[in-house]
Amino acid sequence: MSTNSVSVSALKKRKSPIYMAIIYVVCVIIAVTCILPFWIMIVNSTRSTPQIQQHALSLIPSGHLAQNIAVFKGKDFKPSVGFMNSAIISTCATILAVYFSSLTAYAITAYEWKLKNAFFSFIMGVMMIPGQVTLIGFYQAAYRLGLTNNRLMLILPSIAAPMMVFFMRQYLQASLSIEIVESARIDGAGEFYTFNKIVLPIMKPAIATQAIFTFVANWNRLFEPSVLLTAKEKKTLPQMVQLLRGDIYKTEFGSIYLGLTITALPLIVVYLLLSRYIVAGVALGSVKG
Amino acid sequence: MNKKKSVSYTKYGYIFAIPFVVAFLIFQLYPILYTTFIGFTNLKGLNSKDMSLVQGNPFQNFVDVVHVESFRTALKNTAKIWILNFIPQIGLALLLTAWFTDVRSKIKGMGFFKVVFYMPNIITAATVAILFNALFQSPTGPVNDILCSLHIQDAPVQYLVSKTTAQNVVIFIQFWMWFGYTMVTLISGVIGIDPAIFEAAEIDGANRVQTFLFITLPCIRTIMLFTLVTSLIGGLNMFDIPKCFLDGGPDSATLTTSVFIYNQAFSGSYIYNKAAAASMIMFAIIVFFSSMLFYILRDKDEAAMKKLKKRELREAKLAARGMM
Which chain A residues have a beta carbon less than 8 Å from that of B227? Predict the structure, then answer.
């Protein structure tokens, strides 16, 4: 109580209005910088190319959305195809990553086995190595086996997600009491059953945040799909977006903005709906100071 | 953990780790080894399946890659783009962290600001890159439109043909996409600090700046190092933005090592062996930096204990030897 009154009096004493004004002005400027590009993108997707050519910057939407949509007819940019492919890959990869990372983390936390510590050290050692630098070998192996243009090549690798195992282990160590597991054993539950029915529900908060980030990371991934998925009907959304820079659309500014909006808007909407969890999740995902 | 009871369950530890290990061996370890192997072969050409080890110097591909002008440019660009985006990024993130965690001045709408600042990070990098390409178009892009309307420039400028501007825009995009993430991470670090320390500082009469410099910063040292290393490794792999923004151009100004590797192997030239060699060079650099992270994250007390034990053991041995 006494500390509370100290900080209140300090607050009154030291809060200078100029200092606060500077903070707000800077924050508002940065906020505008973060929003404006997306706002321009959304507004311009409803404007016609002549309008954009006359004045590229307008904050008020216009009525040429249908016209811009029509441009995409018969072109390679097919957002619905990309959307479906991205959704399939991201969903499957997320489920696998979350489940098997939890399982591996549980193996490290709940059981005493000889190689346990060595295994965990190994996971920490490899968790920062990005798949990108080894993709030449991955591609060549897939190519020789005829597995390019196969979505599984982008989904199955997520079974081994060292970074997520690391965070899941941190979470389990803090929140799993071994007594719960032991009482389940006394009740005759099998080990696998215990994991699925008792441990997984305990891990829900960690799973939720990790799932959101894995999904977004997979959704936005460009390098691996560009290499492995070359067939038109297999392309993911980020690969489709790349087509917008091509020559066909160079004079169709309205449709370029529309294409970008189609790919960004779902993410913006989902982000705004889940922002509370996402921003808190970033904090959870980092190491403790 | 009760050792007696868990003994009979030991095998489940192994069983539950199997899927991870198998997937790791197939999808991560094997590609690493195979990429290394390709780096020592003559594998080239679309649809080519034959390869044999290079004649003469086995490291010929590595030597060649290091001497290729565009790889050197790519390496320089990657380092430059990362450094020039990271310094302002961590600077702004620290400033915002200091403001947002200052108990003496609560900021209204802080939640809103956090959400908005983090937003660019969640949007597909490919989309962001092409959006910025559209924004900087000439003569009819929004940036030209704003600057002409405000009479900052008299006529539209061809931004995207200038090497410096192109590089600066890539640096800005990286900064813009990541400062929010860094800020949120740092804030979480500050929130984890025991509030009693801040109270003590306040009672001792420390002002805002002093509190931040001498209390907050030292307390979030680990988290800052973590941010530094993860950002560095991400930066070394920078691909989406430079690839989609101007495909490494103009005149290789935004060519990063990842774009170089991609272009070598997959767009037109199909020089897999050189690309593999370049990948392994990047791999070595990344392993070096991630071992630094490993060192940072290790349990410090445990490590200190181990050292102490080792020393005791050594001293005991020395003593025993001396006795003999």
Answer: 286
Q: Crossing angle, helix B257-266 and helix B272-297, to 10 degrees?
A: 150
pLDDT more than 70, % of chain B: 92
Q: What is the ipTM of this complex?
A: 0.87
Rg over CA atoms, chain B = 26
Q: What are the helix (H) ranges across chain A?
A: 2-14, 17-44, 49-54, 65-71, 79-110, 116-126, 135-144, 152-155, 162-175, 178-186, 191-194, 200-202, 204-220, 223-228, 237-243, 253-285
Facing residue for A113 by CB, picked from B14, B141, B222: B14
Q: Which domains does chain B have, with CATH numbers?
A: 69-323 (1.10.3720.10)
Residue B294 near chain A (CB below 8 Å): yes
Residues of chain A in contact with residue B106, where contact means CB-CB under 8 angstroms, are 11
Say yes or no for a CB contact (<8 Å) between A57 and B293. no
**Would the CB atoms of B290 and A125 count as touching at under 8 Å?**
yes
Residue B297: pLDDT above 70?
no
Spatial separation of the C-alpha atoms in residues A57 and A38, rounded to whole Å: 12
For A:131-160, CB contacts with B below 8 A are 131-141, 144, 156-157, 159-160
CB < 8 Å from B in window 47-66 of A? 52-57
Contacting A residues, span 229-258, partner chain B, CB-CB under 8 Å: 237-239, 241-242, 244-245, 253, 256-257
Query: By the CB < 8 Å criterion, does A34 face chain B?
Result: yes
The model's pLDDT over A110-120, given as tens digits with 9 standing for 90+, comes to: 998 888 889 99
A83 touches chain B (CB under 8 A): no
What is the pLDDT at residue A8?
47
Q: How far is A202 from chain B (nearest CA, A)?
A: 18
pLDDT at B320: 67
Residue ranges covered by each domain of chain A: 2-71, 79-243
Please determine, for residue B254, whether its predicted confidence score (pLDDT) is greater than 50.
yes
pLDDT tens digits, A149-181: 999 999 999 999 998 999 899 889 888 888 888
Do you find a cis peptide bond into B139, omega within 30 degrees of 0?
Answer: yes
A79-243 folds as MetI-like fold (1.10.3720)
pLDDT digits (tens, 9 = 90+) for B182-238: 999 899 888 888 888 888 988 898 888 888 899 898 888 888 888 888 899 999 999
Residue of B131, B192, B294 lying closest to A289 (CB–CB): B192
Sign of CA dihedral B135, B234, A286, B172: negative
